[in-house]
Amino acid sequence: MEPTTFVLFGATGDLAKRKIYPALFNLFIDKKLPQSFSIIGLGRREWTDASFRTNVEQSIRDFSRRKGTDAVLVNEFLQAFRYSVLDIDRKEDYQKLLLLVEQREQELRVAPNRLFYLSVGPEYFEKIAAHIQESGLGSAQGWKRLVIEKPFGHDLQSARDLNEKLSKSFAEEEIYRIDHYLGKPMVQRLEALQQTNPVIQAIWNNRYIANVQITANETVGVEERAGYYDHVGAIRDMFQNHLLQMLMMTAIQVPSKSAADKVRFKKKQVMEALEPLQKQDVASSIIRGQYAAGSIQGKPVVDYLAEPGIAPASMNDTFVAAKLQIDNSFWRGVPFYIRTGKRMKEKSTRIVIEFSEPLKQSSSTVNEQAAPNLLVIEMSPNEKIMLQINTKDTENKGEFKPIQIDLNPGDHDFPEAYESLIQDALHGDATFFAHWDEVELSWAWVQPVLEAFEENLVPLHKYASGTYGPAEADALLAQDGFHWWFDSKLEQNNEAEEGKQYAYHANH
Ligand SMILES: NC(=O)C1=CN([C@@H]2O[C@H](COP(=O)(O)OP(=O)(O)OC[C@H]3O[C@@H](n4cnc5c(N)ncnc54)[C@H](OP(=O)(O)O)[C@@H]3O)[C@@H](O)[C@H]2O)C=CC1
Ligand SMILES: O=C1O[C@H](COP(=O)(O)O)[C@@H](O)[C@H](O)[C@H]1O
């Protein structure tokens, strides 16, 4: 890997502490960092190199999955760290930074390859990019890359404005937009699953698949982020980015050699084929919810409107469920159901592919008894890929029973999403970063939904905390003859489903 100077804006912040330093450390332990690697942390706080290193060390101790590592190795890792006070608005601070970067490159005798990671609020992206350009930091002889964190805009227009401004300083191929769901090991395996298995490739279409369900449920509420979340809601916080990215990754027909540009081109094609919604019709495909008081794992929790910092009459969405259709030859007629919510019964992030009914057999009871085949890509609470198939129940002669096969047994030490993503950015591999085309098309699809919410054309359903959201989200599937898989309430409510659910959980 080429020598790199990693310039981190927002080095004193929460994301750096909880995700970036632990990820860098894990990469260091796995020998996945460049041999010559230098990190320059920036913030307004008057830290020194020494206090910066102390903070980084603490973050490793608190958040790395390699906490117990030998102190000598930790110390070796920390030697790469330097700190410089920088106020985003002060031109002269960028000159000081340039000198430090050049000094480090000379000390290490390395080419000026510079990765600028903006772990700061999005309101600063444009300013920092322009300063990098003007100060000369971005015009050395090596490569330059810009890594940015969501949100990439607040709606279609603001996203376009932001992109236009960034593109004055960085070319599209130099911009790495992090969507941490793309770094999740199981999302990455989804690509490999298709790419390397002709049997999966062959059935990855509307001939064999009845519907696709994408769930990202959380038990947490708004927490300390009221100022941000009450203006954003589930639709912007999760749906526009993470969930549409999962939809794209599921619906692409993965090219046999998945070069970044090919994968991203296929994702763009999926977004272009996504049937658009008209503002007036949003209510028939989208369910909007907001959590009420309830209990999570036995503990009482308050109504969203009673959360500190939330406007008393807020109409913000904390839950969204949607039915989407992709109008292309592979997916025409296959509904994609997507949902995400806060204060749900359990943390569960998964993609379920439900295959069509088995072919008609001579005895009709076969079809009645057999559960659908399912492919489950589970990201949380466990990371696994499962295939549900039917077999004979040896205890109840003549009956069928669904069994679940773990497709990656014994493989449980997965890298964190940020590890994979930072490693890819260092390599210059943009496959698992969001291209501007995808971001723009996602905002374009979501825009009528934002407007329909704004104009209250979509009812806001209250749901008790600790449930699976409003009943209307179940009805969205029920009207098509489906239900959400693996919601544990089915165990209580539907005897016919009970065996399937227990069978699944028993194998977990
Ligand atoms: N935290 C998380 O889990 C996630 C965060 N994100 C995104 O990552 C970004 C950073 O978030 P987070 O770390 O939580 O935010 P924090 O508020 O914890 O940190 C903000 C950072 O920005 C720096 N900063 C703010 N203003 C200035 C300025 N004028 N000049 C120089 N530095 C400045 C702060 O440094 P100092 O105070 O020293 O000036 C601090 O290091 C945001 O875009 C957020 O949306 C995305 C996903 C998850
Ligand atoms: O980006 C975000 O994601 C988290 C959920 O991420 P996960 O990896 O734990 O599933 C969400 O809590 C947060 O609101 C959102 O900004």
How are the SSEs ordered, and which strands pair?
Blueprint: E1 4-9, H1 14-29, E2 37-43, H2 49-63, H3 71-78, E3 81-85, H4 91-108, E4 114-118, H5 125-135, E5 144-149, H6 156-166, E6 175-178, H7 185-196, H8 198-203, E7 209-217, H9 226-229, H10 233-251, H11 260-273, H12 282-285, E8 286-296, E9 299-301, E10 319-325, E11 335-341, E12 348-355, H13 364-369, E13 374-380, E14 384-392, E15 400-406, H14 417-427, H15 436-454, E16 460-465, H16 471-478, H17 489-493, H18 495-506
Parallel strand pairs: 1-2, 1-4, 2-3, 4-5, 5-6, 7-11, 8-16
Antiparallel strand pairs: 7-12, 8-9, 8-10, 10-11, 12-13, 13-14, 14-15
Bound molecules: NADPH dihydro-nicotinamide-adenine-dinucleotide phosphate (NDP) and the ligand O=C1O[C@H](COP(=O)(O)O)[C@@H](O)[C@H](O)[C@H]1O.
Ligand LXAUTJHC is lined by residues 216, 218, 237-238, 349.
Enzyme class: oxidoreductase
Function: Catalyzes the oxidation of glucose 6-phosphate to 6-phosphogluconolactone.
Binding site for NADP(+): 10-17, 44, 87-88, 150
